From TrEMBL:
InterPro entries named among the record's database cross-references: AKR, Ara2-like, NAD(P)_OxRdtase_dom_sf, NADP_OxRdtase_dom
SUPFAM superfamilies: NAD(P)-linked oxidoreductase
Keywords: Oxidoreductase
Domain of life: Eukaryota
CDD domains linked: AKR_ARA2
One annotated GO biological process: dehydro-D-arabinono-1,4-lactone biosynthetic process
UniProt protein name: Aldo/keto reductase
GO cellular component, one term: cytosol
Pfam families attached to this UniProt entry: Aldo_ket_red
GO molecular function terms noted in the UniProt entry: D-arabinose 1-dehydrogenase [NAD(P)+] activity
Source species of the chain: Microthyrium microscopicum
Keyword Oxidoreductase: yes
Length: 386
């Protein structure tokens, strides 16, 4: 039997675990990560994204999944992780390191295979290093340890360059390319700069991560964990984001609510050509699927990140409301026992959010579509100095 393509397997909503780190939380071990993972599964989420670079995230996610294994066996969800980034300023894309990293991730996640493995933050290394890592991952794929291979990072241009390089040098396209903070109310560069190039390079799926711009697009501003203020956004961008947050407050909204809804809902359509057909997962809290039954068109894939149960609950309320507004959405709402006018309400909510997002973009002015430098000026891979 031929292997199903990733676009047929990956659900349109992925639970990201970058929040299970000291960047976003002062003590990630104090979070109820096991409870969050179980709640995510109960809500019908069927894919989890993590990385060895995210401190204890792989271990915490693995413990949560292991605790739920009786009801949610390994074949009921997808696992996505990464290789290559060792620390903030240390990268090792060598074949030996890549293979050792995959083995360690499998142990931490209590699994003998991984659905997707990315080369993490490819902008920090050379094209030759990326090619070495991709070839090593594909060897593991041929052994059945990995199913799909991709790259992740911040600069859209660099992601496109690496997708094109891999296709040119290996004759095989990447399965998946994940961008973060590049399709938000602040920046639409993933669509305007990257989409056509990535499609042309044969990439199947392009998930959009961090619709809050790594936490920047919130009323409270960028998150501060035990590592202090690490966010790369310059003061000018932070200042206009604060003004945008004030505008939203003046109109009875929070910037983060507008940003989450607009980012996920807009990418469902805009990212559809590099999206997925989704895979239904029964939401035990509402009695409905996380994707529309009989979904025939592809939906753009988003990665969400939460730290607390209330954040997950609010995000899933938004997600179901977004689905209510799609074609056939009222049937989705009816199956869940929600309001008979849920589809209409969702469309009205979409229009209101689009109006607010449009004004947020106007407030940002020259900071709209701004991209901070990654890697930062003067970056040196400390691994190469040893």
């Amino acid at each position: 039997m031929a292997k199903q393509p990733l676009k047929a397997l990956l659900p349109p909503l992925i639970f990201g675990t970058a929040t299970f780190t000291s960047q976003y939380n002062k003590d990630p071990y104090a979070l109820d990560t096991t409870g969050l993972v179980r709640a995510a599964l109960d809500h019908g989420i069927r894919a989890f994204d993590t990385s060895p670079y995210y401190g204890p995230a792989e271990t915490l996610l693995g413990e949560g999944l292991a605790a739920a294994r009786t009801e949610y066996p390994r074949n009921s969800y997808l696992l996505l992780t990464k290789v290559g980034r060792i620390a903030g300023d240390s990268f090792d894309y060598s074949a030996a390191s890549v293979k050792a990293s995959v083995k360690r991730s499998c142990e931490r996640l209590h699994t003998d295979f991984l659905d997707v493995v990315y080369c993490h933050d490819v902008e920090f290394v050379s094209g030759a290093e990326v090619l070495e890592a991709i070839r090593a991952l594909r060897e593991l794929r041929n052994e059945g340890v990995i199913k799909f291979v991709g790259v992740s990072g911040y600069p859209v241009e660099r992601l496109c360059e690496m997708a094109e390089l891999v296709l040119k040098e290996t004759g095989e396209p990447l399965d998946i390319v994940m961008s973060y903070a590049n399709y938000t109310v602040q920046s639409e560069r993933l669509a305007s700069v990257g989409l056509e190039r990535l499609k042309k390079a044969g990439v199947q799926v392009v998930p959009n991560a961090s619709v809050l711009g790594m936490g920047l697009l919130r009323a409270g501003g960028a998150p501060v964990g035990s590592q202090g203020d690490w966010h790369p956004a310059p003061e000018g961008l932070r200042a206009v984001v604060a003004k945008a947050a004030e505008f939203c407050e003046d109109h009875g909204e929070k910037l983060e609510v507008v940003a989450i809804r607009w980012g996920i809902e807009s990418w469902l359509k805009v990212g559809g050509e590099v999206g997925s057909y989704g895979r239904p997962g029964e939401d035990h809290t509402r009695g409905s699927a996380t994707t529309l039954e009989g979904q025939e068109s592809r939906l753009g894939v988003s990665v969400i990140g939460v730290s607390r149960h209330d954040e997950l609950e609010k995000t899933m309320l938004v997600w179901h409301s977004i689905l209510d507004g799609l074609e056939g959405g009222q049937a989705h709402a009816d199956r869940a026992g929600r309001w008979e006018r849920a589809h209409e309400w969702s469309l009205n909510r979409r229009h209101a959010v689009e109006m607010l997002a449009e004004e947020v973009r106007a407030i940002l002015k020259e900071w709209a579509d701004y991209a901070w430098a990654s890697p930062p000026k003067g970056f040196v891979n400390t691994l190469n100095q040893k």
